[in-house]
Design a protein that fits this description.
By secondary structure, the chain is α/β, with parallel strands linked by helices. It is built from 7 helices and 11 strands. It has a single domain, classed as Bira Bifunctional Protein, Domain 2 (BirA Bifunctional Protein, domain 2). This is Lipoate--protein ligase family protein.
């Protein structure tokens, strides 16, 4: 499969707040829609955080979890995720045509790369589910839902991803569950399923982001957010949250779209 000439890799060294994480992913998608190179980002969460899918009700989140949990809204759809003991990746592509015939092929490309990485780096057999019963409405939590592209270990989903398209560009981000969170103990992580992998995770956590970036681009360049991306992400963090509210009521991408619509309406004709 043809790849891009290069891919930017951003590794956030420290865990970050949930509203910042979602704002950065939205800023990277906006940047991709304006011609920025393919980018893989690897990050973690400062505090246990519930992220809602783009179309999910915030009211459900406020009643389902205690007030000490942060709640944010993702730019992507799907079910809610309790981000705690996990790694999270995102990748943004400026155009689908050079790489993929269909956006869903990116799920396969990234998930197959993750399967190979975990098998080689951790010595654990993982697989793509390959079949699922998705006719009925899904549970509120993403990791209780089944999709044919889920990455599973010993029959349990531990990697799930979601996408959002904008102006021909594509954002895909996904969670890699390492351990069960006390806020969602029914969802085991990889270490709960295969305890012997835990000593290998430190090395795997350094190598897997490089592996993903190398899947998309022939040349991997380590980078960071541009000043424009930093500025947009900071603006989105400020605008997402209502006055003193616990829940981020709007997705950062919704804010970007509304701002662009306002600019278009106010532009001189």
């Amino acid at each position: 499969m043809p790849r891009f000439a290069s891919c930017r890799l951003i590794i956030d060294a420290e865990p970050l707040p949930g509203d910042w994480n979602m704002a950065v992913d939205a800023a990277l998608l906006t940047s991709a829609s304006e011609g920025a190179p393919p980018t893989v980002r690897w990050y973690r969460w400062l505090r246990p955080t519930v992220s809602l899918g783009y179309f999910q009700s915030a009211a459900t989140a406020t009643t389902a979890w205690p007030a000490e949990l942060d709640v944010v809204r993702r730019p992507t759809g799907g079910g809610a995720i309790v981000h705690h003991h996990e790694w999270t990746y995102s990748c943004t592509l400026p155009q689908l045509a050079p790489l993929l015939r269909h956006p869903y092929e990116l799920y396969d490309l990234i998930h197959q790369a993750l399967c190979a990485a975990f098998e080689q780096l951790c010595g654990v057999t993982v697989h793509i589910r390959g079949a699922a019963h998705a006719d009925a409405p899904g549970p509120f939590l993403c990791f209780l839902r089944e999709d044919a592209r889920d990455v599973c270990c010993r029959g349990r989903k531990f990697i799930g991803s979601a996408q959002r398209r904008r102006r021909g560009s594509l954002l895909q981000h996904g969670s890699i569950l390492l351990k069960a969170s006390p806020w969602a103990p029914e969802l085991p992580g990889l270490v709960d399923l295969v305890p012997e992998v835990e000593p290998r995770l430190a090395v795997a956590g350094e190598e897997i982001p490089r592996w993903l970036a190398g899947t998309l681009g022939d040349l991997v360049t380590f980078g960071e957010l541009t000043p424009a991306e930093q500025k947009l992400a900071a603006q989105l963090v400020q605008e997402q949250r209502g006055a003193g509210g616990r829940v981020v009521d709007r997705s950062p991408l919704e804010i970007v779209s509304q701002a662009n619509s306002t600019e278009a309406r106010s532009a001189p004709r």
